[in-house]
């Protein structure tokens, strides 16, 4: 028998070993990504440098956007604190969670994406504001409600497991304090939206709100530094968003973009192209299925949102044509629903006999006190009077492309009749499919709409 020359034999062995190594590398499971979800408390979508604000000090959020993907059209299902968070964690619309009104705890029966991660071997922790109720605590390995525990929570994680962190701020929620950052914002730094009066009192209130955003921004930077120290930054998906809009009149608790539009940044060095931007519609109800999808886990039928995973590779792709939002009781009785396409917004107000009063803490603010004074003196513009209007218009329709502040109601305009009917039909269908119903009884106000003080019937004895 003729023997193979030694040189050929060695070459054959090396090729075989190389092929074997290549096959092994291909067949071995990929490393599961880690996740950190940052949730701001009452931060408007455009109140940071990454979204074009010229003065707010947000270097870390700006850098996060440069390092990842910025979503220009991300929306919340609700502009109210706890219902919005319940929606995010369950991937369901607020009226489908059992926690649709402010301060209602999320029922234990509601499935969250966090417990699915935990069951799959993830270490799951929450640090900061907890607004989901006691039953949900057991769905995490760790829940700490102390502030400034974000970096320490990251340090104490078990290093042998992939991790998920729910890092929730109390900034920029009211009340505000002065001099909380080294270089406080001034009245000159403020951009006043047209639905608020441009006065020193309003500017001062907004400046303090900006300060809290800057403080929040510092935490984002510190957490990212720790990820680098632990050498896990490249495979950690960071998602930054807010739970609702700024706590000012015509913002928080409304279904205008000032209430439901959110900053949304996704950074994942291993997979997401730095500096990318998406104009596609996404909703906060989509976060849960997306995280599960990225973790390689089945989504399941309880989740009403849609994974936007493909947008992370192709920001010009489309995952949904419409977003839906709702408003329920939050300090004051109310019930409203909205649907938004890339260009138009349709709002239906079911309780037209009451004004669109902002949250009680905003009613007690310097801004609202000044607005009451100007209202009584007849010095508010028409655009600044909407939160006092009675009766409210039952239907509102806006071209948000040409009217971004939603000040010109097109409902009833014959030129937009087709658009109005299409969106109304879509909203009716969504309500039917998600079993959304008008309550049989109306829950009364807990606070006075002029002073923001708690009403006698609700005061603790």
From TrEMBL:
PANTHER family registered for this protein in UniProt: ARYLSULFATASE FAMILY MEMBER, ENDO-4-O-SULFATASE
InterPro entries given in the database record: Alkaline_phosphatase_core_sf, Sulfatase, Sulfatase_CS, Sulfatase_N
Taxonomic lineage of the native organism: Bacteria, Pseudomonadati, Planctomycetota, Planctomycetia, Planctomycetales
Signal peptide: 1-25
Name the UniProt record assigns to this protein: Arylsulfatase
Broad class of enzyme this protein falls into: hydrolase
Residue ranges, compositional bias (Basic and acidic residues): 432-451
One of the record's GO molecular function terms: arylsulfatase activity
Domain of life of the native organism: Bacteria
Gene: atsA_8
Enzyme Commission number(s) from the entry: 3.1.6.1
Record domain Sulfatase N-terminal: where: 33-133, 143-296
Protein keywords: Calcium, Hydrolase, Metal-binding, Signal
UniProt-annotated stretches for the region Disordered: 426-461
Family designation: Belongs to the sulfatase family.
């Amino acid at each position: 028998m003729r023997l193979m020359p030694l040189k050929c034999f060695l070459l054959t062995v090396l090729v075989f070993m190389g092929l074997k190594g290549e096959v092994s590398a291909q067949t071995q499971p990929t490393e599961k990504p880690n996740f950190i979800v940052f949730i701001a408390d009452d931060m408007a979508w455009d109140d940071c440098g990454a979204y074009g604000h010229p003065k707010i000090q947000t270097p870390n959020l700006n850098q996060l956007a440069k390092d990842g993907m910025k979503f220009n059209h991300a929306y919340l299902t609700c502009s109210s604190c706890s219902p919005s968070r319940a929606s995010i964690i369950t991937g369901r619309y607020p009226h489908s969670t059992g926690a649709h009104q402010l301060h209602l705890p999320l029922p234990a029966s509601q499935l969250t994406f966090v417990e699915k991660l935990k069951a799959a071997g993830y270490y799951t922790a929450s640090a900061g504001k907890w607004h989901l109720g006691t039953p949900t605590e057991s769905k995490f390995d760790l829940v700490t409600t102390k502030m400034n525990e974000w970096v320490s929570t990251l340090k104490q994680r078990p290093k042998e497991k992939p991790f998920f962190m729910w890092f929730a701020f109390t900034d920029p929620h009211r009340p505000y304090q002065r001099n909380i950052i080294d270089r406080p914002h001034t009245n000159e730094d403020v951009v006043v939206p047209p639905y608020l009066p441009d006065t020193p009192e309003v500017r001062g209130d907004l400046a303090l709100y900006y300060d809290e955003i800057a403080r929040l921004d510092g935490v984002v930077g510190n957490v990212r530094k720790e990820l680098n120290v632990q050498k896990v930054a490249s495979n950690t998906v960071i998602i930054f968003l807010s739970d609702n809009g700024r706590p000012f009149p015509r913002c928080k608790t409304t279904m205008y973009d000032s209430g439901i539009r959110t900053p949304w940044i996704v950074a994942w060095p291993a997979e997401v192209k730095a500096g990318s931007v998406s104009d596609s519609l996404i909703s906060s109800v989509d976060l849960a299925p997306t995280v599960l999808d990225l973790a390689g886990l089945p989504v399941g039928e309880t989740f009403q949102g849609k994974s936007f995973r493909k947008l992370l590779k192709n920001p010009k792709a489309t995952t949904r044509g419409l977003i839906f939002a709702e408003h329920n009781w939050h300090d004051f009785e109310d019930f409203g629903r909205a649907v938004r396409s890339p260009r138009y917004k349709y709002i239906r107000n079911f309780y037209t006999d009451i004004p669109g009063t902002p949250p009680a803490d905003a009613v007690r603010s310097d801004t609202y006190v000044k607005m009451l004074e100007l209202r009584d003196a007849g010095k508010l513009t028409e655009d600044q009077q909407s939160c006092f209007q009675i009766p409210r218009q039952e239907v509102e329709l806006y071209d948000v492309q040409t009217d971004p502040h939603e000040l010109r109601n097109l409902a009833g305009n014959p030129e937009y009749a087709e658009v109005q009917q299409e969106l109304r039909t879509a909203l009716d269908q969504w309500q039917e499919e998600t079993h959304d119903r008008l309550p049989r009884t109306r829950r009364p106000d807990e606070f006075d709409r002029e002073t923001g003080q708690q009403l006698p019937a609700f005061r603790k004895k």
